[in-house]
Task: structure prediction
Amino acid sequence: MKSLISLLLVVWLIVGAVAAWQRDYFTEGREPSCKNLSNTVLTVLAGPLNYTGVNPKVDCKNVPQPSE
Result:
């Protein structure tokens, strides 16, 4: 049972990575930022849901700043 769940999880993440690749989240030249990284991670985690209309987006305007 554990191996089946592990296999499903791996397939889920691979499908999410393919969706992120199709949206060009892995292209060179993309500026590294909170928004770009968060959108990529959420797209991979959403997996097959990306193909049902889910398009996760993050707005990082209110990111907490470290104390001085």
The helical segments are 2-22, 34-46. The first helix runs from residue 2 to 22. The chain has one domain: 2-52. The chain has a mean pLDDT of 87.
